[in-house]
Amino acid sequence: MAKKTIDQVDVAGKTVLMRVDFNVPLDDNQTITDDRRIRMALPSIKSVIDRGGKLILMSHLGRPKGEPSDVEKFSLAPVAKRLGELLDKTVAFSSDTVGADAEAKAAALSDGDVLVLENLRFNDGEKKGDAEFAGKLAALADAYCNDAFGTCHRKDASMVAVPEAMAGKPRVVGHLVAKEIQYLSDAIANPERPFVAILGGAKVSDKINVINNLLGICDAVLIGGAMAYTFSLAKGESVGNSLVEKDKVDLAKELIAKGGDKLVLPVDTHCGDDFGDPAGCNKEVVPAGEIKDGFEGMDIGPATSAKYSEILASAKTIVWNGPMGVFEKPPFDAGTKAVAQAVADSDSISIIGGGDSAAAVDQLGFADQVSHVSTGGGASLAMLEGQSFAAVDLLDEA
Known about the structure:
single chain, alpha/beta, 17 strands, 16% strand, Phosphoglycerate_kinase_CS, Phosphoglycerate kinase, Phosphoglycerate_kinase, kinase
């Protein structure tokens, strides 16, 4: 699955159209509250401008509904300003994505210049994968670069129709996407063993295909988070007021039967009787499947943490997607913390799926002790399901 990277393209004097993920959080004053996604794109951006290329950046931001107020609320103008500060140079911004302003500003670029286009999702053609919209974007540049892993599983115009319209021109991956492909696809195709997956989060339904796929290739799949209670219900156990998906019980039974010893479920549960007041509520640790009425499971218990830590200690490849409990609310962060510590301490290639698991690892201070933290929650899940990505498949082979 290795793809040509932006470093392998001669960009001097040429224009590169790069799809980035600048979907950053903004407060009510349009101030960026976390610029990590912009900073993570800098290596690919600098690869182009430091070698004398002209760079046009395109991204989505949020989910605009097409209302007039969206133009300010979801504009990429603050992103262009922040990028200019990080690069210590002027970054141009066009008030449209395709149209007179974008064309004029693209044509005015000199070698080493950067232009940020307005939010792709202001155009209906982006989500529809529209070929005409894609053709206008494609006409702006001599080469295409995909550095937006978070949207690689989507069929949006900027991800698929644009590179299709640029057939015959260089179509490559940026540093971020290259790294994601290397870690995630290699882990699944050629894992060093034992290969252990940790899956948490609220819903079995979100992870059915992942569990199914990983049971076929992992040596152990450790289950945590609220989805564990649906498995508990499938075994006829007591789950109290815990969050469960009753319509997924039959499916959970099938996964238990298929998984056998590979599917490892919690042996105890840390419960509370008031989700809204985790610190002050009544708390107790009970054996798995013995949650009383009025209580709900909020975290794996200490015996489960110890069991999972022991399994992880001997692992050579670890993939983790989803927290073990309500990690944002102490003391129900203990299970996630214990698993994060075990992953950090292990002598393994450790890959953290995006979303909540990435946030947890970051919040708990373990981000620099794991091999790779994915930049895309949905995309990393799709890859763990074994899906192929049209947005990546059609790019140039290395």
